[in-house]
Amino acid sequence: MPIIDTKIELNKDLSLVTSATGENSLHRARQDDLLPGQARTSLDNVPLKKYLREALLAPNLDKIALYLWLAVTPDSAHISPLHFQAARGRSVTVTENAYLHLVWHYDQIFIKPLPAYLLSSAFWEYVEKTDEEVRRAATGFLRTYSYLIKYEIDFRKAQSTELGLIPTNDGTNPVTYERFAQFIAPFAEIDDDNVTPRYQYGEIRLSLE
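^ thats the sequence. predicted structure below, dont judge the formating
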């Protein structure tokens, strides 16, 4: 998993700090120490680690991943771009629930927004040093956006007021399609060995039968 270069990061608020005792933590410049995109979450290590596990992990799906192939296409790239979701007759419902991300049922698909902190190079350094499971889940989650946003039409839709799936600026400058494409490119190359079991699959059909 490549560490995101500071030259292409799309959030510049965070920096990684290592204490004299070797403890790693995140610091936010210019503002109170709150997680970018999550104003109710402190950057203090205890609440931050708890929040990240709750926000990004889907342990129950990971447990049954070995059996998902019975009901789901066993392909992590089985994800339609945003513009094609409409062509398939699906409306997008925004959710913060990691379990629902890319779950679809008839004419509806759930998509979890891309939080600002995942666009920071310091964040990726932090999780690489502090929580391997969160790193793998975050990697898999972000990789899904390399499929959801393949074209500029997808990018415009994702940034729309209606959906608000990705941030519109990095704290200083606008996030453009060109910048986003450069940022997301490394994640498109990541293989399944570097993500949690859930993200070894793409879209998941919800069956109520």
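The longest helix spans residues 132-148.
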